[in-house]
Structures are given as C-alpha cells and as structure tokens.
Amino acid sequence: MPTVPLPDNPNLEHLRKRARELQRAVRARDPQALATIAEHRLAPENFQLSTAQLAIARHYGFASWPRLTRHLAIVGTYARDPQTSPATGDVADDFCRLACLIYTDEDGPERWSRARQLLAEHPDLPRRSIWAAAAAGDPVAMREHLARTPADEQGGPFRWGPLFTLAYARVGGDALATARLLLDAGADPNAGYLWKGLPSPFTVLTGAFGEGEQGRGRQPRHPRSIELATMLLDAGAEPNDGQGLYNRMFHADDSHLELLFARGLGGGDGGVWKARLGEAMQSPAEMLRYQLQWAVRHGFTARVRLLAEHGVDVSAPIDGRTPAQLAAAEGHRDIVDLLVSLGAPRPAMAPSEQLVAALLAGDRSALKSDLLADVRRSQPGLVVRAQRPELVAFLVEAGFDVDGRHEGHTALHDAAWRGDVPMIEALLAAGADRSVRDDRFDATPLGWAEHGCQPAAIDALGL
C-alpha cells in the first residue's frame, strides 16, 4: 500500500486532528476520503475514529496507530532542530553554535571563521562549558570538566552531548585526545538526535564522516574523520549508520565504506537506533540497496564492486529495474559489464533507451541513428547527465543543447555546484552560457559555485 514519510517535526495532536477530519469525511462519503481508505484496505461502513487512526498510521508506513504513537514518543525525546534553537546570549554557546555543522544552508566556512575569531578573542571559552571544550578540541579543559560533569551531559545551544558536539565541530583543536577522554569517561558512541524529528538519526559517527547535500565546501568531513570514526567504532558505535552513508554517497571516495564494512556494515540488527525506531528506520540491507542504486546511477564503478563484494544483491530490481538496466540506461557500460560478470543478466532495452545509453557512453555509431532526432526532443537536458568532460563536445555534435535543462538546471550549474573544473572548462569551450539561470533558485552557475563554496569553480567561471 502507498505510504509517505512523516512531516518535519511530527506532532501527535495534529495527527489526531487529521484522523478526526478523515472520519467525518468518510462518513460524509467524500470521494477523496473514500479513495484514501480504500488504498489502505479499509471499509467505510461504521467508520470509527480508531479506523481513521489506523488509516493515518498506514498512510505514514506504520502497521497500527499505537506503533505510530510510540514512534512519536521517541521523536519527542530525540528530536532537535538546530536552526531554531534560541540564542542564549552566552558567549560559550555562541562559539558552539558557530563552530558546529547543523545541516542547514547556514553551514559554511564563514561560520567556522567567526567561531575561531571568537575563540581567539576569548581563549578561556573551553573552560566555561564542557560543550565549548568539546567544540574547541581542548583536552586540558575537558579533563577539568569531566571531574565534575557527566560525559553525556546534554546542553549547550543545541541540547547535545559533548562527544556529539566534538564530532560536528569544524574549528580544529586536538579532537582525538578530547574524544578519548570523553569515551573513557563513559560518553555514548551511539549518541544522536533526530533532525527535525525525521527517522534517520544523526549520530556521533555521522558527524565524524561529515559531508551532505550542501556539498563538501559547506559540510566537510571532520578534519580527523577516519581516525575519529575508527575510535568511535572501536568504542561500540553502530556501523549501520544510514545518515552517514547518505551524506557521504555524493562523491566517489569510499574510505568510509571500507572502514564500515571492516566493522560490520550490512550485518547485525541495526543497533540501538533501529531498536528505538523500528519500522520507521531502514534496515541495514535497505541502506545498502540505496547505496547501490546511487552508485549505479552515477557511474561509481569501484563502489558497485565494493558493495557486491560485501554481499549486496546486484541482480534484484530497484524501483522496477535491475541494477544492470539502470546502469545501461545511464550509459555506464563498464558497470553493466561488471554486473554481468557477477551473475546479473544482461539487460534488454528499447531502441530509444539503447540510443541514450550509446550517447552517454560516447559511441559515435549513435550519430547515425534514425532515432536521434526523437531522442533530442525527449531528452533536452542530456548534457547534464553526461558527467564526463570528454562527452560534452560529442553530445553537442549530436545536436544536444549545451544549455539544455535537466530537472530545471543546466550542466554548467551542476558542474559549478560539484566544483568540477574540467567539466566547466569543457562546457564553456562548447559555448555554455555563464549567465543562464536555473528554474528553482533563479541563480547563475557562478551563484551555485559561490553557494557551494567552490573556489576553483568560481575562478573557472570568472574567466
């Protein structure tokens, strides 16, 4: 049956109100309400509030209303919204607020620079609070705090523990020695929170790995990422960290996966957070299937191989298509060959799909196809999907617009966001328009590069 994710900061009273509204609408024989309960295999006769609540629970992917309410109780305990945490006027809190990643568009080097400046102006900040000592990576001050403060004390501007604050801070210091003191004092290596109440916990390990949707410039990994992550895993951190996997999947580097697989990624029951969140949270196998899908779509051949080597099924369909079909459709012939060598069936494709795959693979025989004009009309943003500089001139030769849009933006926007200077240069050489604006933000490629804190891309676009 169809389900949707819970909204940000889900509220039980709001969901109760929705259930009452649904009950009234069903009793009034509202067509949309009747269609809604039919989707969840519920009958309109004698429609009770408890049945309406069951429909709401199923709508959000829960088997029953009690399971949904239990989940919301967990959310109430662990939800945090760092962006809305009120300012306290305390300089130590101000330092922590500026020093840490909060996973909004406020993240970026300017914040950490202001945090460092604040620390330089007030060098005693680490002694003012245990969270400031954690953010600064100050083991001397941390040792003093731990003599009188529990290692998992929640506080500071975001109601985080000290170890969590340390993992999300990006201002330097001796983070490893400070983390060692906290772990030895009993700090929880699986500490975390639910960002705006969503069921993918941001853990200490997530912070150590870093990165995310805002890009490496705004949300970099911790300066001692692998060493800190190793220390946390040695202390018992759960390796099946779905948010950490998600944040690190956007680039081809697999150092985090290699470490996590060595420590049990893909096995076990998902640990403490899975026990808390149950059906609302992905299983270890589901996390890895999603990683495979991303890697196949984006041409990360080494990652596909790594996932397959650790038991991820490379033949089972993902969203209705096998991984080999996905790879073929994106023109990743090397991934298709890899998957076939691992036992997956070679995919069958429609003629138009074969042509798109050939174009994205740079196959010059595609230029003679009778279907080329049809594909140009149906795939106006194909250059955006190319991802490889050497394909730009070929696709332009095939008649595709170098400024064609895919999902509302051009290839130059995409390359600027990723900081891909060779792609930027190839696009500009092919005549890409520096002044073109995307559909969603009304921004130029330079604006995308600036927002993504990509100095090399900014230089390339400013020529």
Primary descriptors:
463 residues; mainly alpha; Serine Threonine Protein Phosphatase 5, Tetratricopeptide repeat; 4 domains; 3-stranded mixed beta sheet; 53% helix
Can you walk through the features of this model?
This protein is mostly helical and 463 residues long. The chain has four domains: 12-66; 82-282, Ankyrin repeat-containing domain (Serine Threonine Protein Phosphatase 5, Tetratricopeptide repeat), CATH 1.25.40; 285-348, Serine Threonine Protein Phosphatase 5, Tetratricopeptide repeat (Alpha Horseshoe), CATH 1.25.40; 352-461, Serine Threonine Protein Phosphatase 5, Tetratricopeptide repeat (Alpha Horseshoe). Helix content is 53%, strand content 2%. It has 28 helices and three strands. The protein has helices at residues 12-27, 31-39, 49-59, 65-78, 91-99, 109-121, 125-128, 130-136, 139-146, 162-168, 175-184, 204-209, 225-234, 242-247, 255-262, 271-277, 284-297, 301-309, 323-329, 333-341, 351-360, 372-378, 382-386, 389-397, 411-418, 421-429, 445-451, 455-461; strands at residues 79-80, 192-195, 202-203. The chain has a three-stranded mixed beta sheet with strand order 1-2-3. The protein is globular. The protein starts with 11 loop residues before the first helix and ends with a helix. The mean pLDDT is 94.
